[in-house]
Amino acid sequence: MIVKGRAISRGVGRGKVLLSKDAISFLGGVDAKTGVVIEKGHCLEGKCIAGRVLVFPRGKGSTVGSYVMLQLAKNRKAPAAIINLEAEPIVAVGAIISKIPLVDKLGRDHYALLKDGMEVKVDGKKGEIEIFGK
Amino acid sequence: MELTRREQQMLNGELGEAVQQSMEILVALGKIYGAKSMIPISSSQVAGVSYKTIGDAGLEYLKDIAKKGARVGVPTFLNPAGMDRRQWRQLRIPAKFAKKQLEILRAYSKMGIMASCTCTPYLAGIRPKRGEHVAWSESSAVAFANSVLGARTNREGGPSALAAAICGVTPNYGLHLDENRVAGFVVRVEAELKTAADFGALGYAIGEMAKGRNVAFAGIKSASEDQLKSLGAAIAATGSTALFYVKGITPEYVEGEAAEEVAFTQRELEETKEKMGVPEQPQLVAIGCPHASIEEIREVAQLVKGKRLACDLWVCTARKNKERADRLGYTAAIEKAGGKIVADTCMVVCPIEDMGYRATATNSGKSAKYLPSMCGQKVVFGDLKDIIRVKK
Fold it and tell me: Which CATH number fits the domain A2-131, given the four candidates 3.40.50.300, 3.90.79.10, 3.50.30.10, 3.40.50.150?
């Protein structure tokens, strides 16, 4: 099944969905060495985002978060792709400089459509996602 | 978004990888904010310079993009760094910090950016004219450019200002468009504003209340450029306002029809000033947030001339103004009293918390906001003549 969204950062990434209902701050919220979410009380606290298709509403926190995303990519701990409800500048810039495909505005309820562990391919140039086995 | 042929070439990678990535950033921001096209800029001012704020992550990015051959296409100025490039040893900056800071400055220089290291580029060589489009990022410089000069800029992030500098354009949205330059919050100023601290306190109180809206001040009888600099810095620090008008003083003044209106009384001024500090003995008096003008440096020099200071004193400024102060004898007067003129940096982005300072006195509304959270300082707030203490 293919769902159209908006293209924000080009590239193609494929992996298993990791769903977050909370916004993410990459500075202070994610460990750049391990890719593990370290923000206290975050719904993904303790989970590793490396290689996953990370689905979250939007970014938050410091603009330095963009650079932390690049560190994650250099350490090979970046997500395979990102799907946002609505992209904001910190994560958009971070995804572009780190070459992480990013698509937003799928035009329907992300959380009804996407479930943890689903296999998904994100095409950040076409601005669409493909859900396998659905 | 509609792109020109050249912008499309940039996006396709025909002008190299660094330009392509920069244009990708600008296009993404344009999409997010609903811009229909790009607009050429005449200058850029890039934040994200202090090692204290961008850390190793930022340093790596800058080294990467410089290595990819990124070069700026318009005059581009840097925000303050985490230390004075020349006298960091005398200021007791940790050597490890200094090494990283110098690497950051080298990466920026490689891209053709002037290491002006100031939040007041308009006092150090670039003054955009009314109606001119620029991409500046430091919040007080943005407020000054929009409000006092009548130029047009959004509050850029470090990477977006750098991308704009490399491509020479910025997405045309927000404060670049006339329809977004209307004040939605009007302040009737009844208080009598005399000093930079008074203007800073006004900005400090109103920034929070305005919730990001453009602000129009009515009833201010007179204001020097330094006082407007202080006002804009504070309003942009406690809120996200990037444009203010002062009736009869700023080049533009546009009140919205349905604007919310409040009064600011003498009592509110006094209460705000009281609330901005605590009664403490400071170890450091820090002047120059935003960076001091030559007139402000002269004022300090006159206050301390021939006296001994009771604690450390920093007057932060752009290197260009420090050099003028050297020639005019102000530096000698301040140093003789036991103070320093510090260039390239300021009390907020320099690691003063690692240098033994616990309480800092300032006359800046912006510093009063940031010193506790960014530097772990207790703040003593007041007018210049009250916070500079000399030995009896």
Answer: 3.50.30.10
